[in-house]
Amino acid sequence: MNIAESERMRAMLAGEQNLVVVNSCAVTGEALRQTRQTIRRARRDHPDARLVVTGCAAEIDRAEIGAMDEVDGLVANAAKLDPRAWNAPLNAPPKTHAEALARTRAFVAVQNGCDHACTFCVIPQGRGVSRSLSVAEVLREVEAHLAAGAREVVLTGVDLTSWGQDLDGIPRLGDLTGAILAAFPALPRLRLSSVDGVEIDPLLLDLIAHEQRVMPHLHLSLQHGADLILKRMKRRHLHGDAVQLVARLRALRPDIAIGADLIAGFPTESKAHHADNLAIIDELDIVHAHIFPFSPRPGTPAARMPQVPRAVVKARAAELRARAAARRAAWLTRLVGETLPVLAERDGTGYAPNYARVALPPATPAGAVIDITISGIEEGLLR
Question: What does R_g of the chain's alpha carbons equal in angstroms?
């Protein structure tokens, strides 16, 4: 999401001189710490530049960020893509944002904001209610990226699977995905970013299962493996819902790779709850895990719940990461000997459809999709 928005700001501000923009994140306490660190580093690297901060941290932690000596100004998160907030020309910038930073994989933000109230989350405070781009707006965006050379489009959003709930007729994400595939038959690869499993509509499920251009990789906003903790998080799914969804997907598309977000040390989490969290990694065969140690965020209900000691939170996060790393290593080992179509990036690596990262032969041109037979694993990369 931030990559997509940053590219748009980069294009909109292409004519600005000596300006540094920090597009910040505040989803965890660690993200806020890294935001402050980035601001200080940017000031050291550009001592004479005008330094402006926008994004979620500039919204949620406005007083703290605004008080930093290094910061010259703040731009509200809701206004950061509006040229008027930057005194930039209202007419089209000299480059589209796709051309401003052409990528082999294009990130298209089709939705923003969130209408849910998970007890740990500050995102609605930073981004507001859910808003969707129209199908026509998304198609124009995709067309611009394809014209700039993108070979894969990644649909992203704060709550991606809620796309369309605020539009006439209440279309679903499956409708948008189908429209993109129909409008651009030459688009080789379409990928979804993080999704909420309970919001996957029947058409989207069918496309994931049967449409080869939709990549066999699904990243679930899972958060935990214990039902009681999921209820205290105010998630809308339970352990069994996730198990049933993944089992159904694997029955329809056996090569699908599952990713998930998991939070360690949520308030009131017991040893048994943590054991459930560890177990779901194996139960769902999660091979792309994002592990977050819980950090209380201001103004959220979870911040007022009985907290797990920080040392225990860190230890449980480490255990989750170790379990996830073992699961991923076993998965990568199973891929040895397979031939995978890999989209080459500019750094000498590329991504297979299942989002496994592959080291490529020297001089492989960026943007090429080439068949690679996997011979081994080195430093977490398929070779």
Answer: 21
Tell me the pLDDT of the chain (383 aa) as tens digits. Answer: 888 899 889 888 988 889 999 999 888 888 889 999 999 999 999 999 999 999 999 998 899 999 999 999 999 988 999 999 998 877 644 444 444 445 789 999 999 999 999 999 998 888 899 999 999 999 999 999 999 889 999 999 999 999 999 999 999 999 999 999 999 999 999 999 999 999 999 999 999 999 999 999 999 999 999 999 999 999 999 999 999 999 999 999 999 999 999 999 999 999 999 999 999 999 999 999 999 999 998 889 999 999 999 999 999 999 999 999 999 999 999 999 999 999 999 889 999 999 999 999 998 999 999 999 999 999 999 99
Q: Is the same domain home to 44 and 192?
A: no
Q: What is the DSSP string of 262-302?
A: EEES-TT--HHHHHHHHHHHHHTTEEEEEEEE----TT-GG
What does the alpha-carbon distance between residue 7 and residue 154 come to, in Å, rounded to a whole number? 14
Residue keyed to tokens 């081994």: 376
26 and 59 housed in the same domain? yes
The CA angle 19-23-24, to the nearest 5 degrees, is 135
Query: d(Cα 332, Cα 95) in Å, to the nearest integer?
Result: 40
313 lies in the same domain as 344? no
Both tokens of 307, joined, read 């907290």
Last-in-domain residue among 57, 86, 115: 86
Task: Kindly report the backbone phi and psi dihedral angles of residue 332, in degrees, each rounded to the nearest multiple of 5, phi listed first.
Answer: -60, -40
Q: How far is CA 290 from CA 94, 168, 221, 262, 293, in A?
A: 37, 35, 10, 6, 10
Burial category of 272 from C-beta neighbours within 10 Å (exposed 0-12, middle 13-18, buried 19 and up): exposed
Query: What is the H or E stretch that residue 260 is in?
Result: strand 257-264
Return the ∠ at Cα 283 (arms to 282 and 288), rounded to 5°: 55
DSSP sequence for 305-370: SPPPPHHHHHHHHHHHHHHHHHHHHHHHHHHTT-EEEEEE-TTSEEE-TT--EEE--TTPPTT-EE
Q: Nearest-5° angle of CA 221, CA 145, CA 126?
A: 40
CB atoms within 10 A of CB 14: 14
Domain of residue 26 covers 2-86
